[in-house]
Design a protein that fits this description.
45% helix; five-stranded antiparallel beta sheet; 133 residues; rod-shaped; single chain; 1 helix; Pantoate--beta-alanine Ligase, Chain: A,domain 2; alpha+beta
Length: 133
């Protein structure tokens, strides 16, 4: 008779241990996905910043950018990440650069506004900020 009562106790303890193991595994997986998503967002922002900085260098090299010397739209590869960059001029000495970085499914956008003196070619940074997509 002693063996009959031991079997349900063993099964109950085994089920509790299994439940705890599943809960720990799900919690670890959830935390891992959260940290992975944050890392991808950070890498997307880094790619967007790199694309914006590349565009600033192009504007400094070619004061008539994007009309002559540099493309109005291009892609920069940063490691395994990419940044889609557009350069637009309003014709009155202001150039807007939009760079959208992508890392897996995460995207971040950086917008830069430059003031360019058409006669001297002097470039002044007016704004460099992350903006909403």
């Amino acid at each position: 008779m002693k063996g009959v009562s031991a079997l349900p106790v063993i099964l109950l303890v085994s089920m509790i241990i299994l439940e705890l193991a599943i809960a720990v595994a799900l919690t670890a997986s959830s935390l891992s996905n959260t940290f992975y998503g944050e890392r991808m967002a950070s890498e997307a922002l880094s790619a967007a910043r790199a694309g914006a900085e590349d565009a600033i260098i192009r504007v400094i090299r070619y004061k008539n950018c994007p009309t002559t010397g540099c493309p109005a739209s291009y892609t920069v590869t940063v490691g395994s990440r990419t940044a889609d960059v557009t350069i637009a001029s309003d014709g009155s000495g202001h150039i807007t650069i939009n760079s959208t970085g992508a890392a897996f499914t995460r995207k971040k956008k950086v917008q830069v506004i430059l003031g360019v003196n058409s006669s001297t070619g002097e470039v002044k940074l007016q704004s460099f900020a992350e903006v909403a997509l």
